[in-house]
Design goal:
The protein has 449 residues and is of the alpha+beta class. Helices cover 42% and strands 14% of the residues.
Length: 449
């Protein structure tokens, strides 16, 4: 929240008051304070976005939204990326709750108090202190901010992380580096390039079964596409334009929630095949390739996610809808792009953060469907939940393997924390599904950064 001190109202001939103003200016001149323009420009707009500029291209960019709330225009500053699943908080609605302004994420309606950043869900978002001096607005933030987004031409290419793993990744889409007829990676790329979700599922089942029986026995190497294909009539919108999901109290709300979950599961299928193809050429620093079990584990994950999508899609049809009836967003794929240069980062963010957060929100979602009388969907969610525990476990297993097989071994907890700070746009805060996380092999230290 902003504190207003109008310097022009002070009698600068008074030594005490002059010293006070000078002291304030010294604070403003500190390393974390920066002037972001005239206060009136922010007071006159409902929301203004400040864009983070990092000199290190491997650092994530956490933009900041400044909201002007109420008839008197009280200013609040909060990071824009929702710590739940990355939704754009700058597009959220603000409501007064017991005298406090509460911001609601447009994706899943998570609430955040603009004064404290705290949410009733247990999550917490970063807020920033503001000051007005001589009608100029100052913000206390540890990143350099701009009022305009950086142009693509000014951005440098992302460099690999400094970890002792030799990553061999080609960003050119769908080009076969080492042609091996009927290889796992060739099929992975084919599935990623398959737009129709039903065909994607059928191919996933076929390839998974052939891999499990040994009919496909070579991994191969291929570069995946920059982004998986989607059907033409699927309406993909910016994150803030998706329909508010609600709390499963009505049929429309339940359909929205199931449709959103189906969208996530389709991306999860692609994430599984992408990790197989993208990191197929990864070698450990001892020169050894990734074990075959690595690929087997993520083939199983892909098969599970295909099963999940099929169940959710079928449930939508039972309720009188179908996948594609509602707009979808591709926010989850941003994590894939953010971690495309590093297998350690991919495992940490997608499987040890996003998949684990899926466990955390399950109890509440399950109760919502149960309380609405939708026993069938609640039971379906239980199936998904049990499978997702094994997916988190797979991420932990291979993250630990890579850390332990490095010479000298890496301490996996601080490495995990560092990767989360770099690549996850949010904060790992409770409530956690302690039982599910423990079953997956996560420790309490894994949940804190």
């Amino acid at each position: 929240m902003v504190d207003v001190l109008n310097v022009t109202d002070l009698d600068l001939e008074c030594t005490f008051e002059k010293d006070l103003v000078d002291a304030l200016r010294e604070v403003v001149d500190g390393s974390n304070w920066q002037c972001i323009g005239h206060a009136d420009e922010y007071l006159d707009k409902h929301c203004s976005v400040l864009y983070a500029i990092n000199e290190d291209p491997t650092e994530r960019n956490d933009n900041i939204a400044i909201f002007s709330v109420g008839t008197k225009g009280t200013l609040y500053a909060i990071d824009t990326v929702c710590p739940h699943e990355g939704g754009p908080l700058e597009l959220g609605d603000i409501e007064d709750l017991d005298g406090s302004p509460v911001l609601y994420c447009p994706w899943h309606h998570y609430d955040f108090n603009l004064k404290t950043g705290k949410s009733s869900t247990g999550l917490e978002q970063q807020t920033h202190e503001l000051r007005i001096v001589d009608n100029k607005l100052y913000i206390n933030a540890d990143v350099k901010l701009s009022r305009s987004p950086r142009s693509l031409s000014s951005e440098t290419e992302q460099t690999p992380e400094v970890f002792p793993l030799n990553m061999k990744v080609n960003s050119q889409p769908s080009k076969v580096h080492q042609f091996c007829n009927d290889s796992l990676c060739e099929w992975a790329v084919k599935i990623l390039n398959t737009a129709d979700p039903d065909e994607k599922i059928n191919l996933t089942y076929q390839v998974a079964n052939r891999w499990e029986t040994g009919d496909i026995n070579h991994v191969g190497q291929c570069s995946p596409p920059d982004q998986p294909c989607r059907i033409e009539n699927l309406k993909v919108v910016s994150a803030g334009k998706t329909k508010r999901l609600g709390k499963a109290g009505s049929l429309g709300s339940r359909i929205s929630l199931i449709h959103s979950l189906a969208n996530i599961e389709q991306w999860a299928i692609d994430l599984s095949w992408d990790i197989i193809a993208r990191f197929s050429g990864t070698t450990q620093n001892n020169g050894q390739a990734l074990p075959k079990d690595f690929f087997s584990d993520f083939v199983k994950v892909a098969k599970d996610e295909a099963k999940h999508y099929k169940m959710l899609s079928s449930r939508l049809k039972t309720l009188g809808s179908q996948f594609g009836d509602l707009p979808v967003h591709n926010g989850l794929w941003e994590s894939a792009q953010e971690t495309s240069h590093s297998l350690l980062s991919r495992l940490a963010i997608v499987h040890m953060v996003h998949e684990a957060r899926g466990l955390d929100v399950h109890p509440k979602t399950y109760r919502r469907f149960l309380n609405s009388g939708d026993q069938e969907t609640a039971e379906l969610l239980e199936v998904l939940y049990k499978d997702e525990i094994t997916h988190v476990a797979a991420g932990i297993k291979w993250f630990s393997f890579l850390c332990e097989s490095t010479v000298p071994p890496l301490d996996k907890i601080p490495v995990f924390h560092e990767l989360v700070r770099k690549h996850f746009r949010g904060y790992l805060k409770p409530p956690f599904d302690t039982a599910g996380r423990k079953q997956a092999g996560m420790t309490e230290a894994d949940s804190k950064t």
